[in-house]
Design a protein that fits this description.
Elements lengths: L11 H17 L5 H5 L8 H13 L3 E2 L8 E2 L1 H10 L8 H10 L7 H16 L2 E6 L6 E10 L2 E8 L4 E7 L6 H15 L4 H13 L7 H15 L7 E5 L11 H16 L1 H9 L7 E4 L11 E9 L5 E10 L4 H19 L1
Antiparallel strand pairs: 1-2, 3-7, 3-10, 4-5, 5-6, 8-9, 9-10
Helix pairs in contact: 1-3, 5-12, 6-12, 7-9, 8-9
Length: 350
């Protein structure tokens, strides 16, 4: 970004006109014309003079005209400058804070359920889609139990020393006896209690491989399959939960919006780049905003992501949560919403 494109380099008149154009766009999503701006300015200015300023802002890369003789819309660069330099962030009401606190309670639920609820909450409050990464469970375990669900599937219930409950499904060899599941569960409890799965995995697998573990062969298979799935590799990404896709349909106003939404849905299905963006949010504290095509990580031209990290009891960042929608998001309202939800989730996770 060149020095001439900074908000500070704009004179007062240009800054005021630019601010009104962006605020009107965020409210309506439609191009903004000079006559609309002239009715909002404190100091009277002719439409012709306003058009001259708009041309200068367009030349600076902050505005563009979608059609000949149309009004102007902010570019992604213009939106970024507005967010960084002119946006006045609002605050949550007491009712909104109480709603976030109440719906994120953890009692009787595992943390995946809590994060899913938080994602749905952000979607309903913002009117767009909510995103959250489910962190890997790296806490030491207090208890583990394996329950048969079907001839080829079992449910593993893991409780950490911090009281977090997580349920995982694993595939088992058909014909596995209930006693083999109990045997595998008892074996894992003895070796995992007070340790993380990642800490104990290699030692347990080595013991099973060298047949030093006094396990039935079928029980050993359960142990191997479970450890491989639960611990994963160091490069295993966090899981991504998305809620409220259908709410994005409420924002359709033109044919080009349908194309933007098609690309957005494709990216939501792929999830990979969105996980990269959520991971980027964990590089620092506070809310981060990715506007349209300014990020090369994904193809969400016409869409923006507002995201914030959340921490555990040791203040270590373990995940991130946010909202995705069109670039004309209500940033002033959604930024504090995402920030507060991330803080609540982090406190509850801790």
């Amino acid at each position: 970004m060149s020095e001439n494109n900074t908000i500070q380099s704009l004179n007062q008149r240009s800054r005021e006109i630019f601010r009104h154009i962006v605020e009107d766009f965020l409210q309506t999503g439609a191009p903004v014309g000079s006559r609309t701006i002239s009715r909002k300015l404190i100091s009277p200015l002719s439409p012709a003079s306003i058009r001259n300023v708009m041309s200068d802002l367009e030349e600076a890369g902050l505005l563009y005209a979608p059609h000949t003789s149309a009004g102007r819309l902010p570019t992604d660069l213009g939106l970024r400058l507005f967010i960084d330099g002119l946006l006045e962030i609002g605050d949550l009401t007491d009712d909104e804070r109480a709603s976030i606190e109440g719906r994120c309670v953890t009692q009787g639920r595992n943390y995946t359920d809590v994060l899913t609820e938080a994602s749905e909450l952000l979607s309903s409050l913002s009117g767009y889609a909510g995103l959250v990464t489910v962190p890997k469970n790296d806490q030491p375990l207090k208890h583990l139990e394996i329950v048969s669900l079907s001839p080829d599937q079992a449910l593993v219930v893991m409780v950490t020393v911090g009281g977090v409950v997580e349920n995982r499904l694993i595939s088992v060899t058909p014909g596995l006896t209930p006693s083999a599941l109990v045997e595998a569960g008892n074996y894992l409890n003895d070796r995992l209690r007070g340790r993380t799965i990642r800490e104990a995995r290699d030692e347990i697998l080595k013991e099973v491989e060298q047949q030093q573990a006094k396990l039935d062969r079928l029980a050993a298979n359960v142990v191997e399959a479970g450890l491989a799935d639960w611990a994963g590799s160091d490069n295993t990404p966090s899981r991504l939960i998305i809620r409220g896709r259908s709410r994005l349909l409420d924002d359709i106003t033109a044919i080009e919006d349908l194309e933007r939404l098609r690309l957005l849905f494709n990216d939501l299905e792929a999830k990979g780049d969105l996980l990269n963006i959520l991971d980027l949010a964990q590089d620092g504290e506070g809310v981060r905003i990715f506007v349209g095509s300014e990020s090369n990580l994904f193809s969400l031209t016409g869409s923006s992501v507002i995201v914030a990290p959340f921490t555990d009891s040791k203040q270590q960042i373990i995940g991130s949560i946010g909202v995705i929608g069109p670039t004309r998001l209500n940033y002033a309202r959604i930024i504090p919403m995402v920030d507060y939800t991330a803080k609540v989730v982090g406190r509850l996770m801790g």
